[in-house]
Amino acid sequence: MVKARAPTSRFAPGDRVRVAARPVVGHCRTPWYLRGKAGVVAEVQGTFRNPEQLAYFKPGLPAQVLYKVRFKQGDIWGRYAGPVGDNLEADIYEHWLEPLK
Amino acid sequence: MSQPERKNMPRRGAGGRASHDVGGLEFGPIDRHEHDLALWEKRTDAMLILLRDNKRRALTVDAHRRAIESYGEQEYDRTTYYEKWIRAVRNLIIEQEIVTREEIEAKMAEVRAKHAKAGRKAAKETVPW
């Protein structure tokens, strides 16, 4: 992926966030099973051109900050049988995240 | 090469879950056996790398993903990894007007005739558009 100039990131590690639950038409890297789910920012991974636009041969600007967001497995799946402390980490772009208090 | 039976799972859920977005659906156990790639699969990989390199920039990895994600659910579930890849490459080079559909079909007929003459049978007649 092409790194672009970094804008200021809206979220910092430790911030609680929720993934937007909006419907999608076309290419999108936010998995369906995480939409509407709450998690915590684990890492700011850098800034990248927006793949939702690159998929249609557009410049992908403004570039988006990409976060590693940590979710509790129990929060994602209706019936999770594993240990309570199990997490799942996923790459989520900033325009898919909403602040959560 | 034997093909495992491929399951089809209906994508239930609000908000338009796309056919590729299957995380959490019950597809049964994953076959973890390593397997050799066929020559055409290696060529498919090479073709995509060349089409999206800095010299050509004919495709992007995101456009390739988009083309694969546009398959219908049943088509998505019954095709293999590199079948999805080669079909997406074909559709994108037509979309981007690098070649025409007629050129591809003419070449396919030429290759098919060559193999038939040599007594070889094509594994599949066509990849669906």
Q: What is the ordering of alpha helices and beta strands of chain A?
A: EEHEHEE
Strand content of chain A: 25-35%
Oligomer: heterodimer
Mean pLDDT of chain B: 86
Q: How many separate helices of chain A?
A: 2
**Percent range for helical residues of chain B?**
40-55%
Helix content of chain A: under 10%
Q: Structural class from helices and strands of chain B?
A: mainly alpha
Features:
heterodimer, A: 101 residues, SH3 type barrels, B: 129 residues, mainly alpha
Fold and architecture overview:
The complex is a heterodimer of chains A (101) and B (129). Chain A has helices at residues 51-54, 73-76, and strands spanning 16-19, 38-48, 64-72, 87-93, 97-99. With 101 residues, chain A is mostly beta strands. Chain A has one domain (16-99): SH3 type barrels (Roll), CATH 2.30.30.50. Chain A has a five-stranded antiparallel sheet. Chain B is 47% helix and 0% strand. Chain B has a domain at 39-99. Chain B has helices at 39-51, 61-69, 73-78, 81-95, 101-117. The radius of gyration of chain B is 17 Å and the shape is globular. Chain B has five helices and no strands. Classes of the chains: A mainly beta (101), B mainly alpha (129).
